Automatic annotation (TrEMBL):
Pfam families: LOB. This is LOB domain-containing protein. It comes from Erythranthe guttata. Belongs to the LOB domain-containing protein family. Residues 6-107 form the LOB domain. GO terms for biological process: regulation of DNA-templated transcription. One of its GO terms (molecular function) is DNA-binding transcription activator activity. GO terms for cellular component: nucleus.
């Protein structure tokens, strides 16, 4: 027998004796009869046996997994099988990529708006600082001019007082 005392799922379904060297036994255990039944229905036992015999032993497990997947896909969609599932998934990927691109573009717009607002705020701060500095310079200039005028007025007063004194007969 293939794997233990009971025949493999293939031999059970085909109602034959499971030989020691049964090619199906390692891949279709007796406790999972549905696995072989679906593969047999889609591909036929003879074709599966030929495929497995043509492959190296280390590739047979993956091949059986692929056959089971394709057989289940054919049961759900007899026309397209797994190609239909692949096409559906590719369409979903394309839609999600488009949504991602749109979301990234929207994020970029938001970032650019935030940078523009930050730049405006920075420019306003700079303008306010420049305005404050200009105001401060004007105040300093006005203060300096008033000091010059005060000094000039004081000089005028002194000069005027000299004039007055000259007028009154005092020479200095």
């Amino acid at each position: 027998m293939g794997s233990g005392s009971s025949p493999c799922a293939s031999c059970k379904l085909l109602r034959r004796r499971c030989a020691k060297d049964c090619i199906f036994a390692p891949y279709f255990p007796s406790d999972d009869p549905h696995k072989f039944a679906i593969v047999h229905k889609v591909f036929g036992a003879s074709n599966v046996s030929k495929m497995l015999q043509e492959l190296p032993v280390h590739q047979r497990g993956d091949t059986v997994s692929s056959l089971v997947y394709e057989a289940n896909a054919r049961a759900r969609d007899p026309v397209y099988g797994c190609v239909g599932a692949i096409s559906y998934l590719q369409n979903q990927v394309a839609q999600l990529q488009m949504q991602l691109a749109m979301a990234q573009a929207e994020m970029l717009c938001i970032q650019m708006q935030a940078q523009a607002q930050e730049q405006n705020h920075h420019n306003q701060s700079i303008n306010q600082l420049q305005l404050h500095q200009n105001h401060h310079q004007l105040l300093n200039f006005a203060a300096a001019n008033s000091n010059i005028n005060a000094n000039t007025n004081n000089n005028n007063v002194i000069y005027d007082s000299f004039k007055k004194e000259s007028l009154y007969g005092y020479d200095m």
